[in-house]
Amino acid sequence: MTADASEPLAQIGVVGMAVMGSNLARNFASKGHTVAIYNRSPEKTRAVINEYGHEGNFIAAETIEDFVASLQRPRKAVIMVQAGAATDAVIEQLADAMEDGDIIIDGGNALFTDTIRREREMAKRNRHFVGAGISGGEEGALRGPSIMPGGPVESWETLGPLLEDIAAKVDGTPCVTHIGPDGAGHFVKMVHNGIEYADMQVIGEAYHLLRYAAGLAPAEIADIFTEWNKGDLDSYLIEITAEVLRQVDARTGKPCIDVIVDAAGQKGTGRWTVKEALDLGVPTTAIGEAVFARALSSALAQREAATEAELPAGELSTLEALGVEKTAFIDDVRRALYASKLVAYAQGFDEINAGSAEHNWDIKPGDLARIWRGGCIIRAKFLDRITEAYENDPNLPSLLLDPYFTGELQKGLVDAWRRVVVVATQLGLPVPVFASSLSYYDSLRAKRLPAALIQGQRDFFGAHTYRRVDMEGTFHTTWSGEREELSY
């Protein structure tokens, strides 16, 4: 139906009736809210009404003006359209039709700097703008996502109850909270997605080792992941991994995994996470290697050329030749997977803390762990432990330094981690995130790093100076002269 003056007004509106937008609208409606819906192509709006109109109260609009007119004040409209220019266009249309105090919510995967810009532009027009990260995919949008809204506190006071209604619930607690001002919500969603990249890659590396080192069939590996999902690795991604590996292709009768081209796509949030980490000076090595692994997997022509050239592999071995027992190796992979996942989360939280400090957002990391426990793609059992870690110490220098996780690492995880990386190297199997995460861990715990030599080199060729361990000040050695040390 279309907006009519005699009809009750909608509590919330959704622009964009692709799957995510329509599912989000259906979620609101299922919780008893009247929902206004609009799409640039009216056919999509009508299709939603025809197929799902029985699920709740919808007001279908065919123009932006009618859409805005159908909303209660302060008007609240969620944009679920393609990021970039399309989002900017819809924002402008809504802002033109809205009035002071109305709220525009961008629920897409926007770059947080765009969100900061948009929030400032809307503030000048007395419109509230909220960048809200929404995780959980199509199913989450319908059944209950994890939601990460930024923007003005005043907007949260109005939006909060609505978002709490549709968010996933864990132990009765909604998986949503106000993250912070302007771009904070989309920044956190960006890093969430970066962690997701690393998480998926280490699971992929674990599968690869079980398949090509231990020689297990996909169905056997599916059973292993199902068993792992009963313990510390309990998570959505482990759960669906077992489902993917158990699937058989109807056309060929082969495991589905064997007919999927081994080229992983990406939409940009992982790259954004790594770029911002570089700007902030935060080492997110696990996320970076996961992004590069996807890029390399998609370089199919280059990989094919390397295969045809028969690049030397060196002397490779087998588990049997190495004296590695298969059952023990499988358990080592489980432990290495857990340790590597922990590093990915620790690095992600480091980046969030650095971004919060840089932009004065005052993000509470414990709140993030709490709202990520349900609805989102990286939901996992050990997020309960992360929540507790930040509750115990909100200023925790690194997640790895929390007593619980330090204790976990002392239970043989590190030894298993090392064995897996060594065996993978001896077998010629790539484990970029397993290996880089272990190197990060060793660098973090090292008393001395080779950076002293690097700083000496920098001073030699560029007079960049250095500091000493035994006295205050900045120093430079006249390397091309008398090699006298000068202090500044």
UniProtKB/TrEMBL annotation:
Keywords per UniProt: Gluconate utilization, NADP, Oxidoreductase, Pentose shunt
SUPFAM superfamilies: 6-phosphogluconate dehydrogenase C-terminal domain-like, NAD(P)-binding Rossmann-fold domains
Domain of life (superkingdom): Bacteria
A family per Pfam: 6PGD
Residues that hold NADP(+) according to the record: G16, M17, A18, V19, M20, G21, N39, R40, S41, V81, Q82, A83, N109
EC number of the protein: 1.1.1.44
GO biological process, one term: D-gluconate metabolic process
Binding positions (substrate): N109, S135, G136, G137, H192, N193, Y197, K267, R294, R458, H464
Function: Catalyzes the oxidative decarboxylation of 6-phosphogluconate to ribulose 5-phosphate and CO(2), with concomitant reduction of NADP to NADPH.
Similarity comment: Belongs to the 6-phosphogluconate dehydrogenase family.
Subunit and interaction comment: Homodimer.
Protein name: 6-phosphogluconate dehydrogenase, decarboxylating
Species of origin: Corynebacterium coyleae
